[in-house]
Amino acid sequence: MAEALAELCGAVVVHGDDFYRPMDAEERAGLDPVQGYHRYFDWQRLREEVLAPLAAGRDAGYRRYDWPTGTLAPDEIHTVSRSGIVVVEGVYAARPELTDYYDLVVYVDPRARNPCGGFVSAATTTARSTGSPAGAWPACLRVPGSGAVGHASSARSCRFRAGRRA
C-alpha cells in the first residue's frame, strides 16, 4: 500500500524494517513479546534521524538496518527531502511515541474484508498541514490492489475509509 501511495502521489517511502535495533541473535530470540515490542524496533532512531528533522523543516538522513549482517549498513545514507509527502510504513511505525509526527495514520487489518475489494481497515484521522502544495492529495484516492479509499475534503485534511467506517 505504501508503494502504491508513493507512486500515486510522488511520495518517498521510509520502511520501518530499516529501523530494527541491532542486537545479538541470541538476545533477540530470548525476548518475550512484551520485551520484543520495546526492543526490536528502534523508534528513537526513526524519531531522531527522520521524523524530528522533517518536523523541523530539515532534510533527514538515516542508515538502514541490514538484515543479513544484523547491523546498520555502514556505507549507506538514505536521504529524505523535507519537501513533499513522506510515507512511513511498518508494523511498529505507529507507536504512540511517534504519532504526533504524522499527519495521517492508517491501520491495515488484513482480517477485515473491505467491500471495495482487498482486506483493509483504516483509522480515520485529520491530517495537519505540512506545507505540501494544495492538491498534493487527489480529491479521491483509491490505492490499487489494497481496497483503501481516501477522500480529501480540503488541502489540509484527508480521510481514509475502509469497510463501513468513514
TrEMBL record:
Pfam families: PRK (PF00485). Coiled coil: none annotated. GO terms for molecular function: ATP binding; kinase activity. InterPro entries: P-loop_NTPase, PRK/URK. SUPFAM superfamilies: P-loop containing nucleoside triphosphate hydrolases. Gene3D superfamilies: P-loop containing nucleotide triphosphate hydrolases. Residues 40-111 form the Phosphoribulokinase/uridine kinase domain. This is Phosphoribulokinase/uridine kinase domain-containing protein. It comes from Streptomyces swartbergensis. The lineage of its organism: Bacteria, Bacillati, Actinomycetota, Actinomycetes, Kitasatosporales.
